[in-house]
Sequence to fold (802 residues):
Amino acid sequence: MDTQPDTALRPDPIDEPARRASERSQALDPKSPVARFSADTPLLTDAGIELAPFQIAYQTAGTLNAARSNAVLICHALTGDQYFAHTHPVTGKPGWWETLVGPGKPIDTDRYFVVCSNVIGSCMGSTGPASIDPATGRPYGLNFPLVTIRDMVRAQLMLLEHLGIHDLFLCIGGSMGGMQVLQWAALYPERVFAAMPIATGPRHSAQNIAFHEVGRQAIMADPAWADGRYLEAGTRPAKGLGVARMGAHITYLSEPALHRKFGRRFQGGSAPTFSFNADFQIESYLRHQGLSFVERFDANAYLYLTRAMDYFDLAEDHGGVLANAFRGTKTRFCVISFTSDWLFPTRDSRAIVHALNAAAAPVAFVEVESDKGHDAFLLDEPAMFSAARGFIDAAARARGL
Amino acid sequence: MDTQPDTALRPDPIDEPARRASERSQALDPKSPVARFSADTPLLTDAGIELAPFQIAYQTAGTLNAARSNAVLICHALTGDQYFAHTHPVTGKPGWWETLVGPGKPIDTDRYFVVCSNVIGSCMGSTGPASIDPATGRPYGLNFPLVTIRDMVRAQLMLLEHLGIHDLFLCIGGSMGGMQVLQWAALYPERVFAAMPIATGPRHSAQNIAFHEVGRQAIMADPAWADGRYLEAGTRPAKGLGVARMGAHITYLSEPALHRKFGRRFQGGSAPTFSFNADFQIESYLRHQGLSFVERFDANAYLYLTRAMDYFDLAEDHGGVLANAFRGTKTRFCVISFTSDWLFPTRDSRAIVHALNAAAAPVAFVEVESDKGHDAFLLDEPAMFSAARGFIDAAARARGL
Fold:
C-alpha cells in the first residue's frame, strides 16, 4: 500500500475497446492520494463478495497530532467527493465544505487533522463500477458488487488504519454522509469520540427510494447506457443521467427556495414563447444542473450509490430497534436537521434522537430554521455553523485537545 | 357538426408512413361521441393560431331538463379523460369519478345532465398532437399549436353550445381540472352558477414546473421520441414516457401514504437481492405505473398538457391581482384541498379563497384531512363527498332544481 499514483498495478488493456474504456475510466480519476489494498486485504462486502484489489482516494487538511487524537473524518454525500476543502479537479470550484472547514472555521484545520475519502463505489479515484476489473481487464460495469453504507464505512476504517489513525475525534457528514456517520457510531462506537449526522435519517424512506428508482430507470432507459457497458461502447448515457440529476435536484431544494429564486420568471422576457424551449428560468436552471453533472459523474456509480442509500436501514440491522444500534455507546452526538428539508425531514432526525435517548447516549439536537431545503447542509447556514462550533469545541475540551 | 364518427373528413393518407401513423393515431381514439368544428369555426388559441378543423370527444350521463338549467361540466386532470362514469375503452377500468358521480351520488345523474370532454391537446378523441394535420396528411407532432387552460375552456364552451347548453349549473374538477374550473369562472362568470375547484391552485408553482420539465426531458431524451415524429417513424417513446410518469406519480401521492402502502417491504422476500431488480415493493409499483400509462397515453399530448399547466397563472392574466379575475361574479364557489397534497398544497387553495373573499364572491372552503396526497380527489374520501353533496344540494335549491 502506498499513497502515490501507480498505474503499474493495472493490468494491460487487452484490446482496443478495453484500452478506450480504460482511458475513459482514468479520465475521472482525481489528483488525490490513493491508498491501495491488495488481494491479501480484500473488502468483504455485505453482498458476500470479496472486493480485491481496491483503492481509496482521499484528501486531507491540517496535521495529525503526536497523540493521533485529533482526526476528523468527513463523510461525503451521494454525488460528493473527497474535495471538501480543495479545488475540484473537474469543475474548478472551491471545496464543497469550505464554509465549515478551514483555519478558524468550526472544523478548524489549525487544530484538527481532517480526512475525507471518496466512497467505495463512487468515481473520483476510489474503486467503483468504472474501475478496471482485474479479472477481465475491462471496466466492472454492473459486475461491480453492490456496496452498502456499511461497506463504505469498512473501507474508510481500512484507509484510517493505513494512515495510522486508530480512532476519530469527530465523524461528520450530511445526507448519505450522515448515514455513514450513524453507521460508524453503530459499528465502531469505541473509535468515534463525537458524531455529527446532519440532514439524514436512520433509513431511506419509501418516497426517497421511489425518487432514486426513477433516476435509475432514466439512466437505464438511455440506449447509450448500453447495459452498463458504455465505457467499452464508447457511448455516454448523458441524457439519462442528466434527467436523473434534474429530478433529484428538485428534491434537494424546497418549494419556498425555488419560489424565491425563480418563481415563474421567464427567461429573457416577460411572455411565454408557446414552445418547449426553456421558457421559465427554473427550466433553464434544471437543464444546466443536468448538463454540468454528467461532466463530473459516472452513470453506473450513480446507480450503485443510490442503491446503497436505499438499502440503508440501521434499525433493521439491529433487530428492528434503532436504539439497539447505540446501546452502551460513549460517543457524544449532535444531530442537525433543517425545517424545509423534505427529503430527510426533521422527523427522521427526531427518530435518531429518540433512539439515542433510549440508549442513554449523550445527544444534542438542533433543528435549523431554513428555507433552503435538503442542500442547506452545504450552504451558508450560520445557525448550523454555530451549533457545529459549539458542539465541536466542547467535544475538543472533553477530549483534552 | 355532428356527433357520429366520420372518417370521410380526414384527408387520404399520402404515403405508407403517413398511413401507418394515421392508424396509430386512430388507435387511441375512443368510442365517444365527437363534436366536429369546421374551418368556419376555428379555435383561436392564446398562441395566436387558428386551429381548424378540430373535434372534441365527450361523454355524458343523465338528462338535460327542459329549461336546460341542470348541466354539469366535469373538467378532467392532466392524464384523465372523458370516461368519468363509463368503462375506459383502453384499460377496461370503471369511470374515474364514479365515486362522486352517479344515481344518488353527490353529482346525481338522476337530477343533473353531466358532460365531460377530452381537453383539446389530449389523445382520447379530441384533436391533439397525435391527430392528423389536414395541411400535411400526417400527425401534427410538434406542429400542433401550444394550447393553454383558457384554450381548453374555449373549446369546452363551443362543445356546450353545440349541445344546446348556454350555461352551467356546476363546473367541477380537480388538479388541471380545477384550473379549468377557475378559468371558466373568470372567463364566463355569467355562465357558471356554481364552481368547485379541487386540489388545485391559481398558478403552477416553480417546483411543479420543475417536475413537469423533468418529465418532458425524459420523453425528449428517448431516441424513440424521434423529435416528436414517432408515429411516422413507427417507434414508441415508451421508456421516456414511462420515466416521466413514474416521477410524476410520486408527486401525486404522499410520503405517509407511500410508507403505509409499501414502507421498505421487499418483493417476495425479506432480504435485499443486492441487484438493480425491483427489490422494494415501491419500485415494482412505480415500474407498473410507468408501463401501464404508456399503453393509454400519447407522449406528445403529455408534453402539451404539462406545458398548458405550467403556463397557467390566473392573476398574471388580470394585472397581477387574483381577485380581479372574479370581481362582480355571482358564481358561488366551494374550494377543496387535502392536508397531505404537496403538489397543490392548502396554501394554494387559500390563495383562491382569499381572492374570492376580496372579490366579495360567495365561497366555502374545506380542507379535507387525508394522508392520500394529491390523488385524494380521485379516491374514496367521505369528507370530500359530504362537502360536495352539501354544496351542490344547496346550489340546486338556490337554482330551483
Observations:
- Confidence is low (pLDDT under 50) at residues 1-15 of chain A.
- Chain A has eleven helices and 14 strands.
- Residues 238 and 294 of chain A are 6 Å apart (CA to CA).
- The radius of gyration of chain A is 21 Å.
